[in-house]
Amino acid sequence: MENGESKRMWLQKARKLLKSGQVDGFWRSFEQVANSPEYEKWLEDEFPERSSLFELDRRNFMKFMGAATLMASLAGCRRLPKEQIVPFVKQPEDSVPGVRKRYATSFVSQGAAMGLVVESREGRPMKVEGNPEHSGSLGSSDVFCQASLYDLYDPDRLKAVQRGRSTASWDQFWKEARAQLQVAKEKNGQGVVLLTESVVSPSYHAQIQKFLQAFPEAKWVAYDPLAPMNVLYGNDLLFDRKLNAVYDFRGADVILSVDSDFLYLGPGAVRYAREFSSRRAPQGTDASKLNRMFAIQCAPSVTSAAADEVLALKPTLVEPFLRTLAVRLGIPVAPGDTPPKSGEWIEKLAAQLQAARGRCVVVPGLHHRPMVHALAQAINVHLGNVGTTVRYTQPLDFAEDASADGVSGLQRAARQNPIDAVFILGGNPAYTLPGGSSLGRLLEAAPFTAHLTSHANETSELCRWELPLSHYLESWGDGLGYDGSKVLQQPLIAPLYHSFSEIEFIEGLLGSHRTAREVVKEVHGFAGVQGEDRFQAMLEKGVLPTSEFGSEPVEPNFEALELPPALPSGYELIVLPDPTVLDGRFANNPWLQELPKPMSSLTWDNAVYVGPAMAERIGAGTEDKVSISVQNRKEEAALFVMPGIPDETVVVHMGYGRKTGGMWVTSDGTRGFNASLLMNPASPGVGTRVAVVKLDGKMPLASVQVHHSMEGKDIVRSGTVAEFQAKPSLAPEYVHEGHFDSLYPEGEFEYDGHKWAMSIDLSLCIGCNACTIACQAENNIPSVGKTQVQRGREMHWIRVDRYYKGSPDAPEQTLFQPLPCMHCENAPCEPVCPVAATTHSKEGLNQMVYNRCVGTRYCSNNCPYKVRRFNYLNFADKTTDKLGRDAPTLRLLNNPDVTVRGRGVMEKCTFCVQRINSARIESKRTGAPLKDGDIVTACQQACPTQAIVFGDLSDPASRVTKLRSDPRSYGLLADLNTRPRTTYLAKVTNPSNTLSERGAS
Ligand code: SF4
To answer: Which residues sit opposite 392 in a β-bridge?
Structure first.
């Protein structure tokens, strides 16, 4: 690793080169552009002909090789411990060993529920997928749904009731709690508080109401840092009612994202990604249906990366920008000052929006102030978009206010009337409340405090009782989807520990004995035996038909959109949920911790993100230690320089700097810093009066941006609509296509059956990483920890590379390229394996025989795509956890259809061969031949944009065959003559300067 001084030097050099136009095409990192020694080192590690190993003399080379051979043979002599297996004595009636079962259920995440289908094997949930019946999913999912499975088996879950740090029982708790409530009953519940997260479950809400009926003076307060409160407040400003906004991108020709990440975060993101991408790829040579997205970018995001035109703005300039645009469109709002250098952009945008009246949409970022939402919706109303691309519904959250105000109000009220009992259901408010919480004082003063929680955390530590909360796969429940659609939640497994769901817990507090299933049945009108059959039918689908919220009529009040007071100048702050651990709720989930964050490729940490210009101004580079202060709140953190962040803007993510919560939270000391402490409760997402100062020292990070770099020119192909129309292949001039002369005999592999292949459309890929984590869950891929990631040893079988084009301060394009094994016809890995552990199947799969692999890694060295992964340590050992404790539940996480690889073995993408085989077995069993679409790989299934297509090249009608003949189709580094079976479709962008050529304006 280099020190901060030289990192800054390389950053300066890279900026100079990029600005001078000496760098042609796409680039991955500042280090690559400047060709820094660090980047050279990564390349050396990837490409052995450049390696320092060649500087060894013959004697030393023989020494190393001898040692390696000895180690390999020792590994082969390992004695395995004796283990007994026990057969099923009484086989459960409906269980066939080895056969997957699928159940519909749902998962609440980020303020809305997502319908899921979860696969179960021998009674244990094993893989999460989207529910095709649910409008919020359409069969796809996101990284959070995929990774939620780990939390079920997490050995750090709270397993037993704790009373003041000693183990107690539920009976003891119920006895004390009911006694407390008995006393409270005499005061109608005065002094009793229920503190929950957002409540989007009708049954949970019904239980809360039942509790409040029993204790009318009790207080219900909701606080949820992920709740989209600014949407409700903004619509309240404009329409005088708290309303939810639901978008429909299918009919949107022009989209303006106002620093919104609607493709990745927030309610409806999976659905929105599908709708948006349905108009991103040309059909053959026809590009007339493509939509166009403009993005204002304060913080680079998955959504702004997908935009055709991007304008980087400081956060407080967003509102003046929208005001100027609104006035330009003829909306009677108070005009603001036009932000510098944005006049031309606004003119162009206004013309585009006006030309697409009723067929355009403006989407504000969830973290922006309510006024930004009100202005954005005012533009939507004015342009006639209501009812076509946007509609308004009642709020999803039954609490209607999950901001920090509720807790502050509680704290104020407690000064007049003391609080006797606090029941906290889920969440971790002591950690997530903005600006540092005084919740501790409130909890300390209350005689009875209890926290129902999945993990012991910062909040439960402040409570007298810590109570185990059931996982959603252990509980009955329900939820509202992004559009209000009702989804059911059914358990797939009995609680692994003695835990309760929120619905059961409230039932317990009331001393009644209905099961959560009965509650859910009753709430949805299926009560009793008479409703059982209908309830069963609903459970099969998981979604209640036509249950989405209807549209609410709106009347805008433009006069309410007054000018705010002038804001101070200087540095500004954006605080966002972390792209992997959100508000810290997934902090103990190694799948998410190790998943590279889409825009930084950072793993295991958060950082203070700034753009290159600001980094130069504060004289610091990536990994330099800095202090960041906002008014009187201050934290220390590592700096990370990210292209595209506007000058004088700092971006930070919540979810780190936690003190407790499990082994992955604290195993290497504290991870990152707590960005919630920097938030202003009145405006949590955007802060002003920010200072960033370089300190001495470094804070090493684990970013994978330069790992597994490929060398070659034609890696990602992209072009505008005009370029596509001029040359549909978008191939650069220097590419030699159709060159297939080979040293290997042609036709060596004869395919008389299937020829499996994959196609990935770069026009559709948004870089969300759902494919990476779905592959991890399906294929028993281990997490390796921060230290191993820093050494480049991460194990993901499909990585998502990110490329930039243009200036580092404002890249004109950001492009993602998912990279699994290419399954080459002329696979360079195959002939170099000394033990034939990597071979070619008769269906064209490049396969690994794990038992044969002796770990020479020649295959990986010879792979130009760098998609092979080596188990340097026993990463897959799940007998114990990272701290050496016995962790039997982790073993339940493994997919029994996929081999668990031990130390010293090479592994890589298999095209989900287990899925191919189970479809083949099913086809044999039923006698129906395999047809296109019967086999769906894990990455393909999760992908919300359907960028990945898998199928059989022997079938001329298969989608993958057709995509191979698409003019945009190309093989990665095909000039090496590897003849990859995974191919790509070039990305087509649609910036506005091509409009007239398409005649769309
Ligand atoms: S290919 Fe992967 S990264 Fe790209 S959109 Fe699909 S799931 Fe997301």
So the answer is: 245
Spatial CA neighbour of 682 closest among 442, 321, 371, 435: 435
* Tokens of residue 143, six digits: 């990284």
Amino acid at 476: W
Q: Is the CB of 230 under 6 A from ligand 1?
A: no
Segment 714-718 mean pLDDT:
89
Say if ligand 1 is within 6 A of residue 948 CB: yes
Which atom of ligand 1 has the smallest separation from the CA of 798? 2
Distance CA 304, CA 313 (A): 12
Nearest atom, ligand 1, residue 764 CA:
5
State residue 14's pLDDT score. Answer: 76
The model's pTM: 0.91
945 ligand 1 Cβ < 6 A: yes
381 CB neighbour count, 10 Å cutoff: 18
Tokens (6 digits) for 811: 């890249």
Q: How crowded is the C-beta side of 43, counted as CA atoms within 13 Å?
A: 13
Closest CA to 642 of 618, 622, 620, 616: 622
CA of 761 to the centre of ligand 1 (A): 9
pLDDT in tens, 316-358: 999 999 999 999 999 999 888 888 888 999 999 999 999 999 9
If one counts every other C-beta atom within 10 angstroms of the C-beta of residue 200, the result is 28
Task: For 69-92, give one letter per residue: b (16+ CB within 10 A) or e.
Answer: eeeeeeeeeeeeeeeeeeeeeeee
User: C-alpha dihedral over 686, 688, 694, 697, to 10 degrees?
Assistant: -40
Atom of ligand 1 nearest to the CA of 946: 6
Separation between Cα atoms, residue 716 and residue 817, nearest integer Å: 7
166, 393 contact by CB (below 8 A): no
Orientation angle between helical segments 502-509 and 516-523, nearest 10 degrees = 100
The answer on pLDDT for 631 being more than 50 is: yes
Q: Is the distance from the beta carbon of residue 771 to the nearest atom of ligand 1 less than 6 Å?
A: yes
Cβ partners under 8 Å of residue 87, min gap 6: none
Asked if pLDDT for residue 54 goes beyond 70, the answer is: no
Tell me, using a 6 A CB cutoff, whether residue 263 lines ligand 1. no
> How far apart are the C-alpha atoms of 945 and 276, rounded to whole Å?
8
> Tokens for 508?
């317990």
d(CA 818, ligand 1 centre) in Å: 7
Q: Report the mean per-residue pLDDT for the chain.
A: 89
Locate 100 and state its tokens.
């997957």
Whether 346 contacts 338, CB under 8 Å:
yes
Q: Which amino acid residue places its CA nearest to atom 4 of ligand 1?
A: 765
CA of 277, closest atom in ligand 1: 5
Among 276, 277, 769, 950, residue to substitute to test ligand 1 (most atoms within 8 Å of Cβ) = 769
- Indicate if ligand 1 lies below 6 Å from the C-beta of 770: yes
Cβ count within 10 A of residue 816? 22
How many angstroms does the Cα of residue 940 sit away from the middle of ligand 1? 8
Cβ partners under 8 Å of residue 66, min gap 6: none
Q: Count other Cβ atoms within 10 Å, centred on residue 871.
A: 21
Read off the amino acid at residue 186. Answer: E
**Residue 903 near residue 76 (C-beta atoms within 8 A):** no
935 C-alpha vs ligand 1 centroid, how far in Å? 18
Per-residue burial over 634-666, b if 16 or more Cβ lie within 10 Å, else e, is ebbbbbbbbbbbbbbbbbbbbbbbbebbbbbbe
Predicted pLDDT of residue 19: 72
Tell whether the model's pLDDT for residue 75 goes beyond 50.
no
Tell me, in angstroms, the distance from the centre of ligand 1 to residue 663's CA. 30
